[in-house]
Amino acid sequence: MSSGPNPISSRRVAVIGAGAAGLATARELRRESHSVVVFEREKQIGGLWVYTPRVEPDPLSLDPTRTIVHSSLYDSLRTNLPRECMGFSDFPFVPRPDDESRDPRRYPRHREVLAYLEDFASEFNLVEMVRFETEVVRVEPEDQKWRVKSRNSDGISGDEIFDAVVVCNGHYTEPRIARIPDSWPGKQIHSHNYRVPDPFKDEVVVVIGNFASGVDISRDIAAVAKEVHIASKTTASDTYEKLPRLDNLWLHSVIESTYEDGSVVFQNGKVVHADTIVHCTGYKYSFPFLDTNGYVNIDDNCVGPLYKHVFPPALAPGLSFIGLPWIVLQFFMFEIQSKWVASVLSGRVTLPTQDKMMEDVVAFYAKLEAMGIPKRYTHRLGESQVEYFNWIAEQCGCLPVEHWRIQEYYLGLRLCTQSDTFRDQWDDDHLIAEAYEDFAKLKQNRGS
Ligand code: FAD
Question: Which keywords has UniProt assigned to this entry (predicted)?
Fold first, then answer.
């Protein structure tokens, strides 16, 4: 841990977004004695976990002038990770038998995650820091500080100066689309705008993407559709398999071509006449409010330059980003990154010089390039997350990630694409036991 020479100082900090990342950040900033304003454009906390049946008017979300609907949840969604590993480290995500409205399952439905975030916000009095229905429309540096312009639901504009801005706006709202020629006549929709299967009744549907959402959505649709065909880029080119327990669901390799008569040809040579293509092809980073005079850019979905995915070297510590890495334990990461940001802002922990941070970024990019990893995977941590978390933990003097938490995560990640029963059958009771031992210790320490 590198301790700063400065006395602890309190800063005025703007946090953009009151999803899980913004809430964790607000808590850590206040713990470190900063004064915090959280800007949230919706009416409530929870971000992605606030389900809405509303969708965007443009089903592929291509129109830049469209009205944005933030959440990408579908109605049937249950978590793809067990609840023990999803929660914040000192506020376990455990069932609430005292409340009948709650979902006690290990992989609960989406409403339970929102309820958990509401409990978290209430336990730590976070809502009082949030300005609801207030959208940040511009953030720019000014004389070593940050100008934040906002607009509330009454159309009233705000223009304020902050010492620092922490960006927690989420990155599951701006869809990434697979390229399908305009000549293909069928309907197309991105999973961001998928809610329920009813519109696909009796249709032949092609789902592009075989990761968590693709797997869930194809099963959801298969319950009402005539046929569902998944196009996967992670399987061999001759893949053609009927998936278990459903008579109308097939796994293929990627789409090779599409035709004006509505046919879709897969790399395995199979041809289907489809009514709809559903793109479960992920999302892009987007910060439409941020103006750093071109210093922070998004190039092929790599946001940079960023030191350890958090601080842009020339603008640190005044500007920081929470939650960019993916294929990671999200809530744990929000917690640990925001502890780091809060302690750097107070001067308790120091960052290396701008040059040293930039050297680190350049070396990291060179390493990815040497390994043949495309730019768009810069923030995909996967296997390297433990090293990343533990490095940050050391910087700010907090505990490394628990053994059971990371083991549950890896198991969950593997199962969510390989099994359709993982949410109700499991064989990692030893990890659950380890988790609950830790939760009991936490409770004991709180009580003492
Ligand atoms: P969000 O929850 O998206 O919050 C961002 C907030 O910022 C929103 O409230 C938004 O309104 C606000 N905002 C944005 N722009 C502005 C602005 N300009 N001004 C003011 N406010 C603004 N993770 C898991 O751990 N387990 C799961 O099972 C899981 N399932 C998932 C399923 C789906 C379909 C998706 C897409 C993701 C899933 N995730 C899951 C990942 C999930 O995104 C994270 O768990 C986490 O909730 C993201 O939190 P966040 O705060 O970064 O973003």
Answer: FAD, Flavoprotein, Monooxygenase, NADP, Oxidoreductase
